[in-house]
Amino acid sequence: MTDSRTVGQSDCSRRAFFGLVAGVLQSDSQTVRQSVDSLPGTGPSGKLWDPSRAGRPFDPVIAADNDAAIQAIEKQIHCTCGCNLDVYTCRTTDFTCGTSPAMHRRVVALAAQGRTAQQILDAFVQQHGVSILMAPPKRGFNLAGYFVPSLLIVAAGVVLTLVLRRWSRAAQPAAPGTNAADVPASPAELERLRRELDRLSG
Amino acid sequence: MTVLGGLCLWLAFLVGVWGALAGFVGGWQGRRDLQQSARHAVFALCAALFVAVAALEWALFHHDFNVEYVAAYTSRNLPIFYTWSALYAGQKGSLLFWATVLSLFGSLAMLLTARRHHALLPYVAGVVCTVATFFISVMLFGQANPFHRLAYTPLDGNGLNPQLQNPGMVFHPPMLYLGYISITIPFAFAMAALLSKRLDADWLVAIRKWTLLSWLFLSIGICLGMWWAYVELGWGGYWAWDPVENASLLPWLTMTAFLHSVMIQEKRGMLKKWNLALIIGSWLLSIFGTFITRSGVISSVHSFTQSNVGYFFLFFLIAAATVSFAVYAKRLPLLEAEARLESMVSREASFLFNNLLFVGIAFSVLWGTLFPILSELVQGTKVTVGPPFFNQVNIPLGLALLGLTGIGPLIAWRRASISNLQRQFAVPVTVGVFTALVLLVGGMRDGYAVMAIALGGFVAATVVQEFARGARARHRQYGEGYAVALGRLLARNRRRYGGYIVHTGIVILFIAFAGMAFKTETEATLRPGESAVLKSPYGWSYTFTHLGVSQYDALNRQVTAATLEIARNGKRLGVLTTEKRQHVDGFGRPTFQPSTEVGIRSDVREDLYVVLAGLVNGTEQAVFRFTINPLVWWVWYGGMIVALGGLIVMWPGGGSPAVKRTQAGYAVRLVGEP
Q1: What domains lie within chain B, and their CATH numbers?
Q2: What predicted TM-score, i.e. pTM, was given to this entire model?
Q3: How many pairs of residues across A and B have Cβ atoms under 8 Å apart?
């Protein structure tokens, strides 16, 4: 389809720019208006005018597609089409992908054979290696993946606590003793002053 | 015009090299002529790069398909709105955009801080020119010249990827780039302070303001990216822990840590080493993010086409990290703290733990992002690290951080007394516990969701308490009405109360994230007139009735639209349309695979998210995916509130507490304070 407003143009004036921005926005709003063209049970149904525009033909949804157990398994399997998504997300998102529907059919077939979730995952790992799993299995070096951040944070927290304790102990003797007698103020007044300063400085 | 653009790139390269040399040598030797020349070089660099950008836009708008970049990312029928954004849609154009914006920020730094930070500016100019020159050299020597011409001229271009033809993609990348790029300025000031040994409070003022600006841009960019992913990609979520998403989160986390710890340096003269390390780290992480996006070393849905520019970035990253930390290490003796922490129960201590968590989360995200490479190196097996891994590691850390968001502001500086703690914590803790009880009694059983909402209640109560106490104090002292007192409280303490507004936004975001734990979805095949029913987590039922499919032509696409009528508990709510779009070039030829446009109906409680998966055997019988996403609107509201709070904090005139005290004409030191 060509659009006379944008073909071979050299019209990048401000007016043309805003005119076309408005055109884009208007075309989107028209999308909504044009599409309300039939009512339930009364509107046209049957063949599409041009099926090729709607992407690849789809099979009707079957019960296994909505099976929570199947979905849970598919959410642990990495789609191999290069999308970086799990099989469930890919097959319900990228409707041009032919890989995730095939992997879905395999999961459904294995489940129909009575295999457990773990057995199905193992079958995929056997075929593709552990990279087929969305998260590495918790064994061997992979344990480092799971626990190094938490262990480091805990270790850093312990070190920080010890350092802070040492600093605060070192600071304690000096604070009340040295100059307090020089100041004609009671502890309550000093505390109030400190609060006011805190409030002032945010 | 494109010849001029190419020449300007070379000119910018030469000017950049000169600016870098003049800046460093001029600063080192104290030569005014070289310092002035470096400053002018930044302006000249900016002018040359702007001409190059204008030349590329000229080629894009004039459909000069002999230019490879124009042919690759535009077509004759591409709406002009997206023709403009094609500037940064591809690798080469985005490199030019990056260098140009960096030179613009550098020029602004030269103009806005010429008097105040004149001693630092030669080095700042040197750093800006070095980084900009690197980006230009990638274009010139890394086969990424946006003005490269083809041996022939195609009749039409490939057009822009349909997923990029979305208003979110017009605004999201520039915002993210602005965030990434502007981090170079605080980094440049940090390096200038280190190189010039001027490590007094002066550099801190400049760094803090620029970091706030970067943080604000990055926050907005990340939120816009989430919105784009949600409305355009069609998977029903907004964050997938993709490596490129992670790369944008990393500098945001470290900059947020800096914006907290810098307060300790301002007030107590502590944490100088840590703050400088955070700024250097943030900038290196921004370059790391660029490396990940452009190298293809880690697979990502967002990556640019793989090319050899990744090696340039890797080399630059290693060289920059080595030089930066070498200079940093050499100046460590000059960065001793002026005071020591006095108590474990103090705001300083809570900020330190807050920093620990921010940096810890950044580390865990970085660790997870790089773990596939590490695994391949160590055990020879590449593993996939997806959302299950990141959620497991980061959700508990995020909740701990949310708790500290409430705890930090309630604890006094220096040392908190028991009475102070009781007074500050009584109401917020009660609110948090009460919220948790209500949720548990109400039947919520998702542990993380309960904790997120209860902690959110606790933090929100701290914010309300702080505002209420401040307004009451003004009301008592000045006799102002509560509304006026609240307004003036905010206006006169922008940093503090703007920060509380940011905290409010974060609370809203966390609660919204918790809502996704109750996401519900189903797939259904419907003929016109047939319905599917989906139960909402709130208890009511939605009925989706398929009305029919229509096909029509729009600007640069052929549309197949399915319309559904929606009813809640039998009461009609309206209609919703979801589409398949086949994009075509100027001659009507299909350009990309058909893309999907999601139909979304939002309200404050939940989103109805409907996707037309496909049509059965070329008929109107359609396969739909229906999803109910609770609380998604609050993600966008939360993001807006965070941005608003950030704007209030950085709005000029508030001044730092130290400056305000000095301006007030008095200086007070507590007993025992050095």
Answers
A1: 1-159 (1.20.120), 519-633 (2.60.98)
A2: 0.86
A3: 332
